[in-house]
Design goal:
The chain is of the alpha/beta class and 180 residues long. It has helices spanning 37-46, 91-100, 117-126, 144-151, 165-170, 173-179; strands spanning 17-25, 53-59, 67-68, 71-77, 106-110, 131-136, 156-160. The protein folds into two domains: 2-15 and 83-179, no CATH class; 17-77, no CATH class. Helix content is 28%, strand content 23%. A four-stranded antiparallel beta sheet has the order 2-1-4-3, with no helix packed on it. A three-stranded parallel beta sheet has the order 5-6-7, covered by helices on one side. α4 links the parallel β6 (131-136) and β7.
């Protein structure tokens, strides 16, 4: 998990978690390692109101999340909704984000609408420089909503990617954006 934020020049902050991230469940499940996946998942769903989800994040290599050392694992991924007030990532990642934002000059937006008020508030309060943003959305018309939402931050210039994520990675558009 530290690899996302350890580079001095580039950090990847996944504020909504990731499909391969989990949190440990603090409740004691002594037989959790002997349960098959379906039984374990159904038991966790049934006990959801009583689960004590810890702040200990881990990466996993297989889905569905399994159990380790007698600890149930809970998916650490959140649906990005407009009125959410919490992030789903380790506190170290949030601290890295908050310490970097005052120096941010470019934002690469990939498949994001920019409508979460909580995250936009963080950006508005922390961004200190004029922004250059590249929006990757697959189709130009799909870039309009994130562009309008990012415009509310003020002082932004925008580039709309010519294609989707694959074209961005395979072509020269990304390196040109980063160099500019």
């Amino acid at each position: 998990m530290d690899g996302y934020i350890s580079n001095q020049y580039l950090k990847v902050i996944k504020v909504h978690g990731s499909i391969d991230w989990v949190r440990e469940v603090s409740n004691d499940f002594p037989d959790i390692n002997r349960m098959d996946d379906l039984v374990r998942i159904n038991r966790m769903i049934h006990l959801a109101p009583e689960l004590q989800i810890s702040g200990r994040f881990r990466m996993i290599r297989h889905l569905p999340p399994s159990a380790e050392q007698g600890k149930a694992l809970y998916p650490a991924i959140a649906i990005p909704i407009e009125k959410k007030s919490e992030f789903e990532c380790p506190i170290e990642h949030l601290n890295a984000l908050r310490s970097c934002l005052p120096e941010v000059k470019k934002i690469l937006v990939i498949g994001w609408r920019g409508s979460e008020k909580h995250f936009m508030k963080e950006l508005r309060e922390q961004i200190k420089h004029p922004l250059k943003s590249m929006i990757v959305s697959g189709k130009p018309e799909d870039a309009e909503e994130p562009r309008m939402n990012l415009e509310t931050l003020g002082h932004s210039s925008f580039t709309i990617s010519r294609g989707g994520f694959t074209e961005l990675i395979l072509g020269d558009e990304l390196s040109n954006f980063l160099k500019a």
